C-alpha cells in the first residue's frame, strides 16, 4: 500500500473464524490479529508498516 502498510486477503467461508499469525524467521509465530468471523467468501486484514524493515511471513489460522 502507499503508506507501506500490508494488506492481506484470503478466501474464507462465511461464519468461520480466522486470525493472522506472523513471523520474521518462520520458526517463531506471533498472533497479529484477534479472531475475525468471516461474513463473506473473502476476508482481509491491513497490518501496519514494519518498523525494522525485516521480512515478514504470514499464515492464516482457521476455526469452524
Distance between the termini: 31 Å
- How many beta strands in the DSSP annotation? 6
Instruction: Please state the structural category.
Output: mainly beta
- Poorly predicted segments: none
Strand content: over 45%
Count up the domains: 1
Average pLDDT over all residues: 90
Shape label: globular
**Largest sheet data:** 4 strands, antiparallel
Q: List the secondary-structure elements in sequence, H or E.
A: EEEEEE
Count of helix runs? 0
Provide the gyration radius in Å. Answer: 12 Å
Percent of residues in helices comes to under 10%
Account of the protein in words:
With 64 residues, this protein is mostly beta strands. The chain has one domain. Helices cover 0% and strands 47% of the residues. It has no helices and 6 strands. The protein has strands at residues 6-11, 17-23, 30-31, 36-37, 42-47, 57-63. Strands 2, 3, 4 and 6 form a 4-stranded antiparallel β-sheet that branches. A hairpin with a 6-residue loop joins strand 2 (17-23) and strand 3. It is globular.
Element layout with pairings:
Layout: E1 6-11, E2 17-23, E3 30-31, E4 36-37, E5 42-47, E6 57-63
Q: What are its keywords?
A:
64 residues; mainly beta; 4-stranded antiparallel beta sheet; 6 strands; 0% helix
Question: What can be said about this structure in brief?
Answer:
The protein has 64 residues and is mainly beta. It has strands at residues 6-11, 17-23, 30-31, 36-37, 42-47, 57-63. The strands form 2 sheets. Strands 2, 3, 4 and 6 form a 4-stranded antiparallel beta sheet that branches.
Amino acid at each position: 500500500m502507499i503508506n507501506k502498510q500490508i494488506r492481506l486477503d484470503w478466501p474464507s467461508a462465511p461464519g468461520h473464524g480466522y486470525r493472522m499469525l506472523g513471523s520474521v524467521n518462520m520458526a517463531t509465530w506471533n498472533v497479529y490479529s484477534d479472531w475475525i468471523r468471516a461474513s463473506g467468501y473473502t476476508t482481509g486484514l491491513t497490518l501496519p508498516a514494519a518498523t525494522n524493515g525485516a521480512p515478514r511471513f504470514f499464515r492464516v489460522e482457521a476455526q469452524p
